[in-house]
Amino acid sequence: MPTKSLPVKVTQHLKPYASRLEHVTSLPVTVPRDTQNVLVISALTAYAIPQFQQVWSQLSSKPAVVWVGLTQAQTEQVWKQAGYSSDPLPSPVTLYESISMPVPIAYHRVNNGWEAVPGILPPSQAHDWVAFFEGATSR
């Protein structure tokens, strides 16, 4: 059975959306030039996947998903171990990079770079991912 909720210790330390929003000029991963939204995540952070799955169907266009830290084969194996029969966050652009970095982190392209929100949101704010990926980052 897939992981359905965040560990209590993680939930207790989550900061609100507005306090996490930051601006960066470049991405730590490579994505196609016309990409507007990016989610960088690791299969090893299985507790984070359900939060993005919760809003995935509400997004008008899916973010590029960059799975980091493992090869594609290793990532797919971890999904299976976590209870997913296939890619839990399907996207037209799915990439795999072996780099190691703190994840998850979401990006939305803006005129002079990217707006970024590291981590996951408190469960009561999970719906804010829709606004973030649709470009409504100023709150």
How would you write the strand order of the largest sheet?
1-6-5-2-3-4
Largest sheet: 6 strands, mixed
How many beta strands in the DSSP annotation? 6
Low-confidence stretches: none
Average of the residue pLDDT scores: 88
Query: Could you estimate the helical fraction of the residues in percent?
Result: 10-25%
How many helices? The count is 5
Brief rundown of the structure:
By secondary structure, the chain is an alpha/beta fold. 23% of the residues lie in helices and 21% in strands.
Kindly describe this structure.
The chain is 23% helix and 21% strand. It is an alpha/beta fold. The protein has a 6-stranded mixed sheet. It starts with 7 loop residues before the first helix and ends in a 6-residue tail after the last helix.
Sum up the structure in keywords.
about 140 residues; 6-stranded mixed sheet; globular
List the helices and strands and how they pair.
Blueprint: H1 8-11, H2 17-20, E1 22-24, E2 37-41, H3 49-56, E3 64-68, H4 72-81, E4 94-97, E5 105-110, E6 113-118, H5 128-133
